[in-house]
Amino acid sequence: MTDTPDSPASSAVTDPPADDHVPDTVAFEHYFFKKMEDVYFRLDPDTKQPLAIVRLGHEEVSLSFSGIQKEFDIASDSKDGRLLALIGKGLKYVKALRLGDPVPREVLTGEASWEPKEKHRQIAYNRLAVQILGWLSGDEHIITNPDELMQVAGDSTFRKRVNDAFGEAARNLGLSSKEEVTELISGLSSELAYIEALRDEFHAMQRVFEKAQPLRKIYANEHGQLDTVNSMLRLFNAAIEDFTARFETVDAQTGEIMAALKNLDTVKAYLREHRNDLRVRLVVWEDLLLKWLRRPVRAGREIEDLVDETYRFLAPRYMPVDKWIMMTQLQDPVKRAPLKQTDHRTEKKIKYMGGRMPWS
Question: Taking the mean position of all CA atoms in its chain, how far away is CA 321?
Fold first, then answer.
Protein backbone atom coordinates (compact mmCIF):
# COMPACT_ATOMS: atom_id res chain seq x y z
CA MET A 1 0.00 0.00 0.00
CA THR A 2 1.15 3.54 -0.63
CA ASP A 3 1.63 6.13 2.06
CA THR A 4 -0.66 8.90 0.90
CA PRO A 5 -2.41 11.88 2.45
CA ASP A 6 -5.71 10.88 0.83
CA SER A 7 -7.77 10.08 3.88
CA PRO A 8 -10.38 7.33 3.99
CA ALA A 9 -12.47 10.02 5.61
CA SER A 10 -13.00 11.55 2.21
CA SER A 11 -14.70 8.38 0.97
CA ALA A 12 -16.66 7.64 4.12
CA VAL A 13 -19.40 10.07 3.09
CA THR A 14 -20.64 10.65 -0.46
CA ASP A 15 -18.99 13.65 -2.08
CA PRO A 16 -21.30 16.65 -2.21
CA PRO A 17 -22.85 17.16 -5.63
CA ALA A 18 -22.47 20.39 -7.54
CA ASP A 19 -24.90 22.89 -6.07
CA ASP A 20 -25.53 26.61 -5.98
CA HIS A 21 -25.17 26.59 -2.21
CA VAL A 22 -22.15 24.96 -0.59
CA PRO A 23 -22.22 25.04 3.22
CA ASP A 24 -19.29 27.04 4.58
CA THR A 25 -20.11 26.85 8.29
CA VAL A 26 -20.79 23.89 10.55
CA ALA A 27 -24.49 24.65 11.02
CA PHE A 28 -27.04 21.86 10.57
CA GLU A 29 -30.78 21.96 10.02
CA HIS A 30 -31.69 18.56 11.48
CA TYR A 31 -33.04 18.57 15.04
CA PHE A 32 -30.51 15.90 16.11
CA PHE A 33 -27.60 18.34 15.86
CA LYS A 34 -29.54 21.17 17.49
CA LYS A 35 -30.42 18.89 20.38
CA MET A 36 -26.80 17.81 20.90
CA GLU A 37 -25.27 21.22 21.57
CA ASP A 38 -21.99 19.74 22.83
CA VAL A 39 -21.38 17.71 19.66
CA TYR A 40 -18.03 18.00 17.89
CA PHE A 41 -16.37 16.19 14.98
CA ARG A 42 -12.99 14.54 14.61
CA LEU A 43 -11.29 11.67 12.82
CA ASP A 44 -11.02 8.32 14.52
CA PRO A 45 -7.29 8.04 15.42
CA ASP A 46 -7.14 4.42 14.22
CA THR A 47 -9.49 4.13 11.24
CA LYS A 48 -9.33 7.82 10.15
CA GLN A 49 -13.10 7.75 9.63
CA PRO A 50 -15.01 10.95 10.56
CA LEU A 51 -16.97 10.75 13.79
CA ALA A 52 -19.49 12.89 15.64
CA ILE A 53 -18.67 12.90 19.36
CA VAL A 54 -21.58 13.54 21.73
CA ARG A 55 -21.53 13.66 25.51
CA LEU A 56 -24.06 11.58 27.40
CA GLY A 57 -23.64 12.28 31.10
CA HIS A 58 -19.96 11.75 31.87
CA GLU A 59 -19.36 9.59 28.80
CA GLU A 60 -18.46 10.48 25.23
CA VAL A 61 -20.15 8.47 22.49
CA SER A 62 -18.74 8.21 18.96
CA LEU A 63 -21.19 8.14 16.06
CA SER A 64 -20.19 7.43 12.47
CA PHE A 65 -21.42 9.83 9.79
CA SER A 66 -22.96 6.99 7.78
CA GLY A 67 -24.78 5.78 10.89
CA ILE A 68 -26.19 9.25 11.57
CA GLN A 69 -27.38 9.58 7.99
CA LYS A 70 -29.05 6.20 8.07
CA GLU A 71 -30.63 6.62 11.52
CA PHE A 72 -32.06 10.08 10.84
CA ASP A 73 -32.70 9.67 7.12
CA ILE A 74 -30.31 12.46 6.07
CA ALA A 75 -29.94 12.30 2.30
CA SER A 76 -26.49 12.83 0.82
CA ASP A 77 -27.81 15.54 -1.49
CA SER A 78 -29.49 17.49 1.34
CA LYS A 79 -27.79 20.48 2.97
CA ASP A 80 -26.89 18.42 6.04
CA GLY A 81 -25.66 15.54 3.86
CA ARG A 82 -23.41 17.89 1.86
CA LEU A 83 -22.14 19.44 5.07
CA LEU A 84 -21.26 16.04 6.56
CA ALA A 85 -19.30 15.24 3.39
CA LEU A 86 -17.39 18.52 3.59
CA ILE A 87 -16.64 18.01 7.29
CA GLY A 88 -15.35 14.52 6.51
CA LYS A 89 -12.92 16.01 4.00
CA GLY A 90 -12.04 19.05 6.12
CA LEU A 91 -11.08 17.08 9.23
CA LYS A 92 -7.80 16.19 7.53
CA TYR A 93 -6.70 19.80 8.03
CA VAL A 94 -7.85 20.47 11.61
CA LYS A 95 -7.92 18.44 14.80
CA ALA A 96 -11.65 18.95 15.35
CA LEU A 97 -14.67 20.98 14.28
CA ARG A 98 -17.53 22.27 16.42
CA LEU A 99 -20.91 23.76 15.63
CA GLY A 100 -20.43 27.27 14.30
CA ASP A 101 -16.85 26.67 13.08
CA PRO A 102 -16.04 27.54 9.47
CA VAL A 103 -15.56 24.60 7.12
CA PRO A 104 -11.81 24.44 6.29
CA ARG A 105 -11.21 26.50 3.16
CA GLU A 106 -8.98 23.77 1.72
CA VAL A 107 -12.12 21.82 0.74
CA LEU A 108 -14.10 24.87 -0.39
CA THR A 109 -11.75 27.12 -2.33
CA GLY A 110 -8.32 25.46 -2.13
CA GLU A 111 -7.05 28.28 0.10
CA ALA A 112 -5.47 27.61 3.47
CA SER A 113 -7.71 27.76 6.53
CA TRP A 114 -4.82 29.11 8.60
CA GLU A 115 -2.32 31.94 8.30
CA PRO A 116 1.46 31.99 8.69
CA LYS A 117 2.97 34.45 11.15
CA GLU A 118 4.60 37.66 10.05
CA LYS A 119 8.05 36.19 10.80
CA HIS A 120 7.38 33.38 8.30
CA ARG A 121 6.39 35.93 5.65
CA GLN A 122 9.63 37.81 6.29
CA ILE A 123 11.68 34.60 6.14
CA ALA A 124 10.10 33.68 2.80
CA TYR A 125 10.71 37.13 1.30
CA ASN A 126 14.31 37.31 2.50
CA ARG A 127 14.97 33.81 1.20
CA LEU A 128 13.81 34.76 -2.32
CA ALA A 129 15.65 38.08 -2.21
CA VAL A 130 18.86 36.26 -1.30
CA GLN A 131 18.26 33.86 -4.19
CA ILE A 132 17.95 36.81 -6.58
CA LEU A 133 21.31 38.05 -5.32
CA GLY A 134 22.76 34.58 -5.83
CA TRP A 135 21.38 34.42 -9.37
CA LEU A 136 22.99 37.74 -10.17
CA SER A 137 26.38 36.65 -8.81
CA GLY A 138 26.16 33.21 -10.44
CA ASP A 139 26.10 31.42 -7.07
CA GLU A 140 22.42 30.79 -6.42
CA HIS A 141 21.58 28.58 -3.46
CA ILE A 142 18.77 28.18 -0.96
CA ILE A 143 19.06 29.35 2.64
CA THR A 144 16.23 28.15 4.87
CA ASN A 145 17.87 28.70 8.26
CA PRO A 146 16.18 31.82 9.74
CA ASP A 147 19.30 32.87 11.65
CA GLU A 148 21.44 32.75 8.50
CA LEU A 149 18.82 34.70 6.56
CA MET A 150 18.63 37.30 9.30
CA GLN A 151 22.40 37.70 9.22
CA VAL A 152 22.42 38.21 5.46
CA ALA A 153 19.40 40.54 5.47
CA GLY A 154 20.89 42.52 8.35
CA ASP A 155 23.86 43.60 6.25
CA SER A 156 23.83 47.36 5.72
CA THR A 157 24.18 46.95 1.94
CA PHE A 158 21.45 44.29 1.62
CA ARG A 159 18.61 46.58 0.50
CA LYS A 160 20.69 48.34 -2.14
CA ARG A 161 22.06 45.08 -3.52
CA VAL A 162 18.56 43.58 -3.68
CA ASN A 163 17.24 46.73 -5.38
CA ASP A 164 19.96 46.51 -8.03
CA ALA A 165 19.35 42.77 -8.47
CA PHE A 166 15.61 43.37 -8.98
CA GLY A 167 16.43 45.82 -11.74
CA GLU A 168 18.62 43.25 -13.50
CA ALA A 169 15.96 40.58 -13.01
CA ALA A 170 13.37 42.87 -14.63
CA ARG A 171 15.54 43.16 -17.74
CA ASN A 172 16.06 39.39 -17.83
CA LEU A 173 12.32 38.75 -17.53
CA GLY A 174 11.41 41.38 -20.11
CA LEU A 175 9.58 43.53 -17.57
CA SER A 176 9.40 47.31 -17.67
CA SER A 177 10.39 47.99 -14.06
CA LYS A 178 11.89 46.44 -10.94
CA GLU A 179 8.60 47.18 -9.17
CA GLU A 180 7.07 44.40 -11.26
CA VAL A 181 9.75 42.03 -9.99
CA THR A 182 8.99 43.12 -6.43
CA GLU A 183 5.35 42.26 -7.06
CA LEU A 184 6.27 38.81 -8.42
CA ILE A 185 8.56 38.12 -5.46
CA SER A 186 5.86 39.25 -3.02
CA GLY A 187 3.31 36.95 -4.64
CA LEU A 188 5.65 33.97 -4.51
CA SER A 189 6.79 34.69 -0.96
CA SER A 190 3.18 34.84 0.24
CA GLU A 191 2.79 31.19 -0.81
CA LEU A 192 6.24 30.20 0.42
CA ALA A 193 5.45 31.66 3.87
CA TYR A 194 3.10 28.73 4.51
CA ILE A 195 5.92 26.30 3.81
CA GLU A 196 8.18 28.19 6.22
CA ALA A 197 5.49 28.04 8.92
CA LEU A 198 5.17 24.29 8.41
CA ARG A 199 8.96 23.99 8.53
CA ASP A 200 8.78 25.55 11.98
CA GLU A 201 6.42 22.74 13.06
CA PHE A 202 8.87 20.23 11.63
CA HIS A 203 11.64 21.84 13.68
CA ALA A 204 9.55 21.14 16.80
CA MET A 205 9.51 17.49 15.75
CA GLN A 206 13.29 17.55 15.43
CA ARG A 207 13.62 19.10 18.91
CA VAL A 208 11.49 16.34 20.40
CA PHE A 209 13.61 13.71 18.66
CA GLU A 210 16.74 15.22 20.20
CA LYS A 211 15.03 15.52 23.57
CA ALA A 212 14.25 11.79 23.55
CA GLN A 213 17.84 10.70 22.86
CA PRO A 214 18.94 10.57 26.56
CA LEU A 215 16.37 7.82 27.14
CA ARG A 216 18.88 5.35 25.72
CA LYS A 217 21.26 6.19 28.56
CA ILE A 218 18.51 6.42 31.17
CA TYR A 219 17.29 2.89 30.40
CA ALA A 220 20.65 1.36 29.50
CA ASN A 221 20.29 -1.25 32.26
CA GLU A 222 16.61 -2.04 31.65
CA HIS A 223 16.75 -4.11 28.48
CA GLY A 224 13.00 -4.48 27.92
CA GLN A 225 12.35 -0.75 28.13
CA LEU A 226 15.54 -0.01 26.19
CA ASP A 227 14.24 -2.15 23.31
CA THR A 228 11.04 -0.11 23.32
CA VAL A 229 12.99 3.16 23.32
CA ASN A 230 15.27 2.03 20.49
CA SER A 231 12.34 0.85 18.37
CA MET A 232 10.53 4.15 18.91
CA LEU A 233 13.60 6.23 18.10
CA ARG A 234 14.29 4.27 14.89
CA LEU A 235 10.78 4.97 13.68
CA PHE A 236 11.03 8.58 14.81
CA ASN A 237 14.22 8.91 12.78
CA ALA A 238 12.40 7.51 9.75
CA ALA A 239 9.77 10.21 10.22
CA ILE A 240 12.45 12.92 10.40
CA GLU A 241 14.08 11.63 7.22
CA ASP A 242 10.71 11.45 5.47
CA PHE A 243 9.77 15.05 6.30
CA THR A 244 13.29 16.25 5.47
CA ALA A 245 12.96 14.74 2.01
CA ARG A 246 9.54 16.32 1.52
CA PHE A 247 10.79 19.80 2.41
CA GLU A 248 13.83 19.36 0.18
CA THR A 249 11.53 18.41 -2.70
CA VAL A 250 9.45 21.56 -2.18
CA ASP A 251 12.57 23.72 -1.84
CA ALA A 252 13.91 22.38 -5.11
CA GLN A 253 10.85 23.75 -6.92
CA THR A 254 11.98 27.30 -6.14
CA GLY A 255 15.70 26.49 -6.32
CA GLU A 256 16.11 28.41 -9.59
CA ILE A 257 14.44 31.71 -8.85
CA MET A 258 14.23 33.03 -12.41
CA ALA A 259 12.62 29.83 -13.67
CA ALA A 260 10.14 30.05 -10.79
CA LEU A 261 9.24 33.66 -11.62
CA LYS A 262 8.74 32.79 -15.30
CA ASN A 263 6.34 30.00 -14.33
CA LEU A 264 4.79 31.69 -11.33
CA ASP A 265 1.26 30.25 -11.56
CA THR A 266 2.57 26.70 -11.89
CA VAL A 267 4.96 27.11 -8.96
CA LYS A 268 2.25 28.68 -6.79
CA ALA A 269 -0.08 25.77 -7.52
CA TYR A 270 2.72 23.34 -6.65
CA LEU A 271 3.39 25.10 -3.34
CA ARG A 272 -0.31 25.07 -2.44
CA GLU A 273 -0.56 21.36 -3.17
CA HIS A 274 2.43 20.57 -0.96
CA ARG A 275 1.30 23.06 1.67
CA ASN A 276 -1.90 21.05 2.05
CA ASP A 277 -0.06 17.73 1.99
CA LEU A 278 2.39 18.83 4.69
CA ARG A 279 -0.43 20.33 6.78
CA VAL A 280 -2.33 17.03 6.73
CA ARG A 281 0.79 15.13 7.76
CA LEU A 282 1.82 17.55 10.50
CA VAL A 283 -1.52 18.33 12.15
CA VAL A 284 -1.76 14.80 13.58
CA TRP A 285 1.56 15.33 15.40
CA GLU A 286 0.53 18.43 17.35
CA ASP A 287 -0.83 16.85 20.54
CA LEU A 288 1.96 14.28 20.75
CA LEU A 289 4.71 16.89 20.32
CA LEU A 290 3.16 19.09 23.00
CA LYS A 291 3.26 16.18 25.45
CA TRP A 292 6.96 15.66 24.76
CA LEU A 293 7.82 19.36 24.97
CA ARG A 294 6.02 19.74 28.30
CA ARG A 295 7.27 16.56 29.97
CA PRO A 296 10.71 16.20 31.55
CA VAL A 297 12.74 13.25 30.29
CA ARG A 298 13.39 11.13 33.35
CA ALA A 299 12.79 7.52 34.27
CA GLY A 300 9.26 6.72 35.34
CA ARG A 301 5.85 5.53 34.27
CA GLU A 302 4.85 8.85 32.64
CA ILE A 303 7.74 8.90 30.17
CA GLU A 304 7.42 5.15 29.52
CA ASP A 305 3.74 5.58 28.68
CA LEU A 306 4.64 8.45 26.35
CA VAL A 307 7.27 6.30 24.63
CA ASP A 308 4.65 3.58 24.14
CA GLU A 309 2.12 6.10 22.81
CA THR A 310 4.70 7.49 20.40
CA TYR A 311 5.60 4.02 19.18
CA ARG A 312 1.93 3.21 18.54
CA PHE A 313 1.60 6.49 16.66
CA LEU A 314 4.68 5.87 14.51
CA ALA A 315 4.38 2.14 13.79
CA PRO A 316 1.52 2.20 11.24
CA ARG A 317 3.03 5.25 9.56
CA TYR A 318 6.72 4.40 9.27
CA MET A 319 7.23 0.68 9.77
CA PRO A 320 7.05 -1.75 6.84
CA VAL A 321 3.87 -3.80 7.19
CA ASP A 322 5.64 -7.15 7.56
CA LYS A 323 7.77 -5.72 10.39
CA TRP A 324 4.97 -4.07 12.35
CA ILE A 325 5.16 -5.27 15.95
CA MET A 326 1.80 -6.18 17.47
CA MET A 327 0.59 -3.22 19.51
CA THR A 328 -0.80 -5.55 22.17
CA GLN A 329 2.78 -5.89 23.39
CA LEU A 330 2.61 -2.27 24.48
CA GLN A 331 -0.85 -2.29 26.01
CA ASP A 332 -0.31 -4.23 29.24
CA PRO A 333 0.35 -1.53 31.89
CA VAL A 334 1.81 -4.08 34.34
CA LYS A 335 3.86 -6.53 32.32
CA ARG A 336 5.68 -5.06 29.37
CA ALA A 337 6.72 -7.78 26.96
CA PRO A 338 10.13 -7.17 25.38
CA LEU A 339 9.75 -5.83 21.88
CA LYS A 340 11.03 -7.89 19.00
CA GLN A 341 14.07 -6.21 17.55
CA THR A 342 13.82 -5.12 13.94
CA ASP A 343 16.76 -5.49 11.62
CA HIS A 344 18.05 -1.92 11.32
CA ARG A 345 19.47 -2.66 7.89
CA THR A 346 16.05 -3.72 6.67
CA GLU A 347 14.51 -0.49 7.97
CA LYS A 348 17.11 1.54 6.11
CA LYS A 349 15.84 0.04 2.84
CA ILE A 350 12.32 1.41 3.29
CA LYS A 351 11.03 3.29 0.27
CA TYR A 352 9.12 6.13 1.83
CA MET A 353 6.46 6.31 -0.89
CA GLY A 354 5.43 2.67 -0.64
CA GLY A 355 5.37 -0.47 1.46
CA ARG A 356 3.60 1.08 4.45
CA MET A 357 0.14 0.92 5.83
CA PRO A 358 -2.04 3.91 4.78
CA TRP A 359 -2.04 6.42 7.57
CA SER A 360 -4.23 9.41 6.91
Answer: 22
